[in-house]
Amino acid sequence: xIGIVCEYNPFHNGHAVxxxxxxxxxxxxxxxxxxxxxxxxxxxxxxxxxKFARAEAAxxxxxxxxxxxxxxxxxxxxxxxxRGAVGLLGSFGVRHLAFGSETGETAELxxxxxGLMQPxxxxxxxxxxxxxxxxxxxxxxxxxxxxxxxxxxxxxxxxNNILGVEYIKAIYDLHLDMEPAAIRREGSEHDGxxxxxxxxxxxxxxxxxxxxxxxxxxxxxxxxVYERERRLGREIRDRGVFETALLSRLRLYDExxxxxxxxxxxxxxxxxxxxxxxxxxxxxxxxxxxxxxFPLSRIRRLCLCACLGITAGMNxxxxxxxRVLAANERGxxxxxERQGKGSVPxxxxxxAAKQLSGEASAVxxxxxxxxxxxxxxxxxxxxxRPGMDWRTGPFLLWDGEREKDLQSGSSVIY
Length: 414
Fold this sequence. Notes:
Layout: E1 2-6, H1 13-26, E2 32-37, E3 40-41, E4 45-46, H2 51-60, E5 65-69, H3 71-74, H4 78-91, E6 96-101, H5 106-116, H6 121-131, H7 137-149, H8 159-173, E7 179-184, H9 201-209, H10 220-231, H11 243-250, H12 255-259, H13 268-278, H14 282-289, H15 296-308, E8 322-327, H16 329-338, E9 346-347, H17 358-374, E10 395-398, E11 402-403, E12 412-413
């Protein structure tokens, strides 16, 4: 099996190219399993379309099976995000991990991952941060690795390379029997201007927010899903719709609560608390808390963690279950093949989450509550009903065309 870690916010032509190349380079007969972020993504924002719509678009566009990355790992640093996603793929028996990178050089990224895990590296990074307080962790890490390995350390300046290195570190740290494969990324950089037909997800989101068409930038099958979501009022067109809800929750908490948030160290928890007590808007809070040491994405993640009930420690280890969001016929074969072999329960119906206990039950409930928050951004008031995460089953593709809900058979596979 080939595994892909993704957000698909939204799924676009570059993602389709990545899937095609992964199958060409690793094996066209391999099943393709995606672990995808839910309604909130690692940059600390709500996704344009819900996890259900994005999983359907992916399944219609080449993915065999889409599993949800639970919320605490979606809103983690690159390291926590990678560990959660790779760990989930490992628990499903995936043997090949295909990821996009700016270099496309697997060996180079493997060497960087091994280098970062060497004794003394973290101490060097910490010392550099103390010497230069305005330096971000990412910049300090890059400087240390350039000093240790030379020019290849510059790879850590590029976002896909950074994630690729973290994926490989997770494979090593979790002792997984999994081969990494870097697929050279096509199209524009995340925030750059790409050529028509291969624009980045960031550019496509800007196009969507401006009300313009994204036809030609996404596969036709995915476009049909997105156009349906827009017609039904389930598209998040303006993230400003969350502002009142975000501010009302942030203002409820005392300083001690902010200190207990994930990644709130180095004084960031206190800095954010002070910004919340002073500023009148969400954007003003982000601007006041931001600095060279604390990038905007980290602060946005912290704010969402506060609003959605995620505290430090929830993203430790790897996810305690795998929830199926979408599958085609090959994906269902993969599920049958994994019956009795998985190290975590696989949920093929949301009601099966009621059979979970302990940490797994708490994590699922947290994600369900987050979906209730997410739908407040829908333009249609009827789509803002609570509790839908407990009642929405996976999308199933039959013969490439027919769909139906998975209502029969075992709903939890071990």
